[in-house]
Write a structure and sequence with these properties.
heterotrimer, A alpha/beta, B alpha+beta, C alpha+beta, B: alpha+beta, Arc Repressor Mutant, subunit A, 3 domains, three-stranded antiparallel sheet, 15 helices, 19% strand, C: alpha+beta, two-stranded antiparallel sheet, 3 helices
Chain lengths: 493, 488, 95
């Protein structure tokens, strides 16, 4: 069974359907691997019994030839998705003991497709962060170590760090993440996996703990681009319970996956070449451009003039929305309650004790930028700049079919680094935030290794609702990169 | 025009300026942003969805009927209906507000400026401006008296749709304000968008009161929250206006604050602040998109509006010749107006007679029996039948009253009662003449007195004749014959 | 725009967030750093630009007025730290 973990999602799916392996075998192998990789702290909750029960049910359906799209495939779920009867924490103390009596729409779709739930993965508290280091449950750790320093633990990125660590460490076949400013793409880049943020509205937000409502999106984190296409197909779909859910139908994402990039126009945004950018990031980007040119694409220099304002725009809008979304965490109906002499005291004590430092910072900034006298100068101003950022993309997409950019301005940093410097931490999102603000689909694909032997991803951005193009170009990058490096810890697995 | 309302202070007269914010619960089966039920009086937290309970990950979806109800109301208030409106979050913390914000509308409400025509006691009409109407969520309920150190929260009401109707500060007296509330309530009940039941809390008033020298600059206002009867609104205004005048006359100034009306004491008092800094940090709700109304839909809703109270009253006065008082009484409730018009049957019956009978006899009997029109033992058709019997001379007006009483008591119709009791009017001139002769013959002294000038005795003869006939003599004929026989 | 301790304390009160005295100083510093960072937006000319209302460009969907939810008080109070029968219980509020 040593090779069973070797199978990517599509291969495992096919093997299950061909009855070459059973879901119980596959799930057991993953559960064992989760045990073996406990030090990664990738999971907050492992649902072993439930997983095996789901696997058995999947095996029964496979035997009858009634396989769903993801039948029997063991998936990890970021602990931001509400899962019925299963502890859901958002990696926060304030949700202690919270077991939802409902299932999020996206995970319900996964289970309806026959997938098996391995457990809930670790993340930055309330999805606020780029390292997953703000988790109440301790930071998850990347399976990768620097070639120059095997001792130092590295971050798997954030906020979907647990999901990334699990997939990269083979402690999950695939995982769900969420991306608000880069939280799927950046961890994917740091851990050498594929991370796809679909267009805003593609996947329902119902039942996902809300961080920033106009930005949050659910998406898959997988080993391959094709795996991501299969998973997104199962996750996406219009949900009448979510007023922001898109009615646009998802096209057949696999239909054009292998179509290549011949004749496509690929945009290279000059503003993404930032001052002080590490040369190896420039280098991998240049390599990516070459690969696509060699594969027959036309490379087009494009301008996205408001790029540098994306981060400050994001760090006004996201905290503002979060400050309001997190007002419901007050100790009355669920989670932690710290008593107080009065209702107001109870609220303040509960929230003061229950929220970590980064969450508190964002709630306070958010409260401030919405407050009387500042709303126009900050929030409304930011929404105007956001309109300009979207306009930049719309203009660019009249001339190109997709955009190629780096995902992250660096390879993975050490656990604990940047914890004291919020701004430095925010700068991690410089390449991912613009697409978030514009609502456009984006995917990170592993492209190469840094000088320290750590993964570097490349990011493909597409038009609104054009995930098919993003996947197609991403596949071309994946083929050209032929990224086969594995973290040392996977040796012999 | 009657005297303007003034508070007399030591240093002179003061004018009172009043503006009203009415929160009207929308009639709909489910809530504004959730599919939970809205019916009043359910067991605690049984009409609460996960969305209403503000569980993590929950999202709002707007109810089409609530939107239509707001549009209907705007149209009935002759107001501007805004084709694009936005829902904003009003952020504050309170136990009955699980989300920590209320979804409301701030800068772009669904309805803009309109007007309500208020009927004043002296018969004149005053136009009171509406500034805006917006949709928002109602909050839950807190019970503070169930436990010594805890409050209990019931979220059944949380999320029910409210229309907040804001008037311009055009009102100048408690009476005008009462008239405004009555008219507004009447309109809402007519179009079926709110039942206006103040005791049950489906219509609540926040009263803004300030005082100033007549035609002087506006004073600082205080808001008296959640007053739930028209009488209390009037009392609250009177008390608050006097309170403010006293302070100002003593050289002080008015602090802008929120107050409550203590009905037991008839006083307003300052509210212990639930939110010291009223910084609601309004911003457009990112879970919702702007609401866009199709002009065709607005037009369709307008076309389907029923005849409104003022229009109906005007028509009653014009087409039926009713007095202002009678018309006003009949149109106050749509059900009453409908009932009355069923009696009139498109003009087949005399509308004035029908009005008299409806108001004096029917309402009188209903009041006495403690019944609503909906429970009347006499239907509109039945009353109409009775009026027909008077109209064609079958029975006299006097007898009709007895018949009516019997109809009310038994629920039977007029014709049956008249037949059974043999109450048909006698209009045979020969028969009546015989009775008249007998009466005159038996009272020669009175006849002589009458003929010598005591006109009042005519009534005696009429009374005797009718009595002798068992009440059945046609009064008109009695009069005629008596006159003739007494004259000569 | 620089925040002082008193302002941060009042923002914290608005947000019902207890920030202990010994953490307040650090919080003031962090918040000012963030505000300094976002102030760059002042440079952007946004004259005539409408705030972005929606990235999808859709209108608000409406749902039919049918009772489809509620009726499960046990689920609603299942996670409550202090439930009294079907009610939520909180420290008493005096109005």
């Amino acid at each position: 069974m040593a090779g069973i973990l070797d199978l990517d999602l599509v291969a495992a799916r096919d093997a299950l359907r061909a009855r070459e392996i059973s879901s119980t075998e596959l799930t057991s192998a993953y559960l064992a691997r989760i045990e073996a990789t406990r030090d990664l702290n990738a999971y907050i909750t492992v649902t072993a019994d439930k997983a095996l029960a789901m696997a058995a049910a999947a095996d029964a359906r496979l035997a009858k030839g009634e396989a769903g799209a993801l039948e029997g495939l063991p998936i990890a779920v970021k602990d931001l998705y509400c899962t019925e009867g299963v502890l859901t924490t958002a990696a926060s103390h304030i949700l202690d003991g919270f077991k939802p009596t409902y299932e999020s729409t996206v995970t319900a779709r996964l289970w309806d497709a026959g997938a098996v739930m391995l457990g809930k993965t670790n993340l930055d508290e309330f999805a606020m962060g780029s390292s997953s280091g703000t988790s109440y449950y301790g930071p998850p750790v990347s399976p990768w170590r620097s070639a120059q320093d095997a001792e130092t633990r590295l971050v798997p990125g954030g906020s979907s760090g647990g999901s990334a660590a699990a997939v990269a460490g083979w402690a999950a076949l695939a995982a769900t993440g969420t991306d608000t400013g880069g939280s799927i793409r950046q961890p994917a880049s740091f851990t050498g996996i594929v991370g796809l943020k679909p267009s805003y509205g593609r996947c329902s937000r119902w039942g996902i703990v809300a961080f920033a409502s106009s930005l949050d999106q659910a998406g898959p984190m997988t080993r391959t681009v094709r795996d991501a296409a299969v998973m997104l197909t199962a996750m996406a779909g219009h949900d009448p319970k979510d007023s922001t859910s898109a009615a646009e139908a998802l096209p057949d994402l696999e239909a054009t996956l292998e179509s290549g990039v011949k004749g496509l126009r690929i945009g290279v945004p000059r503003e993404y070449r930032v001052d002080g950018m590490p040369s190896e990031i420039e280098a991998i980007w240049a390599r990516g451009i070459e690969w696509l040119r060699d594969a027959g694409a036309e490379i087009v220099d494009i301008a996205l003039p408001h790029t540098k304002y994306a981060l400050p725009t994001y760090y006004i809008i996201a905290p503002a929305e979060a400050s309001s979304n997190l007002a419901r965490y007050d100790g009355v109906r669920f989670g932690l309650r710290v008593e107080g002499g009065s209702l107001a005291e109870m609220y303040a004590n509960t929230r003061g004790a229950g929220f970590g430092a980064e969450v508190q910072r964002r709630v306070l900034i958010g409260t401030y930028v919405l407050s009387a006298g500042y709303y126009d100068a900050y929030y409304r101003k930011a929404q105007r700049v956001r309109a300009l950022i979207r306009r930049d993309f719309d203009e660019a997409f009249r001339r190109v079919d997709a955009i190629l950019a780096p995902t992250s301005p660096s390879d993975a940093f050490a656990v604990g680094a940047n914890d004291d410097d919020p701004i430095k931490m925010y700068l991690n999102d410089v390449f991912t935030v613009p697409a978030s603000l514009a609502g456009l689909p984006g995917m990170s694909v592993p492209a190469g290794l840094s000088a320290r032997g750590l993964p570097l991803g490349l990011q493909v951005l597409g038009r609104m609702f054009d995930e098919a193009m993003v996947l197609r170009v991403g596949r071309a990058i994946e083929k050209a990169a032929a990224f086969s490096a594995r973290p040392a810890m996977l040796e012999g697995v | 025009m009657s005297e303007p309302y003034r508070i007399q202070g030591d240093t002179g007269a003061w004018e009172v300026v009043i503006g009203l914010e009415v929160h009207a619960q929308v009639i709909s089966k489910s809530k504004l942003f959730s599919g939970a039920a809205t019916a009043f009086g359910a067991e605690p937290n049984t009409q609460v969805s996960l969305v209403d309970a503000a569980m993590p990950g929950m999202l709002p979806v707007i109810n089409r009927e609530c939107v239509d109800q707001a549009v209907r109301t705007g149209l009935a208030l002759e107001a501007q209906v805004n084709e694009v409106s936005v829902f904003d979050r009003k952020n504050y913390f309170y136990a009955d507000l699980p989300q920590g914000y209320q979804i409301s509308q701030y800068q772009q409400p669904i309805v803009g400026e309109g007007v309500v025509q208020v009927d004043l006691p002296d018969g004149s009409v005053k136009a009171v401006g509406i500034e805006r109407l917006h949709l928002e969520q109602d909050a839950g309920k807190s019970l503070h008296d169930q436990h010594p150190s805890k409050s209990y929260i019931d979220l059944n009401r949380s999320g029910v749709a409210l229309m907040e109707i804001v008037s311009r500060p055009d009102l100048r007296s408690p009476e005008e304000t009462a008239g405004y509330i009555r008219k507004l309530r009447s309109i809402l009940r007519y179009i079926g968008t709110c039942d206006g039941n103040m005791q049950e809390g489906s219509m609540r008033c926040d009263v803004n009161v300030s005082v100033r020298r007549p035609d002087g600059p506006l004073g600082t206002r205080c808001e008296i929250k959640n007053v739930n009867s028209i009488r209390f609104v009037q009392q609250a205004i009177e008390y608050e206006a006097r309170r403010q005048v006293e302070i100002l006359e003593a050289g002080g100034s008015i602090d802008q604050e929120t107050r409550l009306f203590d009905a037991a004491r008839g006083e307003t008092r300052s509210m212990r602040s639930k939110e010291d800094a009223h910084d609601y940090r309004y911003f457009p709700d990112p879970d919702l998109l702007p609401l866009k109304l199709d002009p065709a839909r607005i037009a369709a809703l307008k076309a389907a509006l029923p005849e409104l109270p003022d229009a109906r009253k005007a028509r009653f006065m014009r087409d039926y010749g009713l007095s202002l008082y009678d018309a006003s009484t009949l149109i106050e409730e749509r059900a009453t107006a409908d009932w009355y018009e069923a009696v009139v049957k498109g003009g087949k019956r005399d509308p004035k007679i029908a009005a008299n009978w409806t108001i004096s006899e029917l309402f009188g009997a209903l009041n006495k029996a403690g019944l609503d029109l909906g429970d009347s033992p006499v239907s509109a058709a039945a009353l109409g039948g009775l009026l027909d019997l008077i109209g064609d001379g079958t029975i006299s007006g006097r007898i009709a009253k007895d018949v009516f009483a019997e109809m009310f008591a038994t629920g039977r119709d007029a014709a049956a009662i008249v037949e059974e009791k043999g109450l048909r009017q006698v209009s045979d001139s020969g028969a009546i003449a015989a009775i008249v002769d007998a009466v005159l013959a038996e009272n020669p002294d009175k006849v002589a007195e009458y003929r010598s000038g005591k006109d009042k005795l005519f009534g005696f003869f009429v009374g005797q004749t009718i009595k002798r006939s068992g009440g059945k003599a046609n009064p008109g004929m009695v009069n005629e014959l008596l006159k003739a026989k007494l004259a000569g | 725009m620089s925040l002082d301790k008193a302002t941060v304390a009042s923002i914290a009160a608005l947000a019902r967030l207890r920030v202990p005295e010994d953490r307040l100083e650090a919080m003031v510093g962090d918040l000012n750093a963030i505000l300094g960072f976002v102030e760059q937006l002042d440079e952007v000319d946004t004259a005539g630009v409408e705030p972005l209302a929606s990235v999808t460009g859709h209108a608000l969907p409406l749902r039919d007025d049918v009772v489809t939810d509620g009726g499960y008080p046990d689920r609603v109070t299942a996670n409550a730290p202090d439930a009294a029968g079907s009610f939520y219980a909180v420290p008493k509020v005096v109005e």
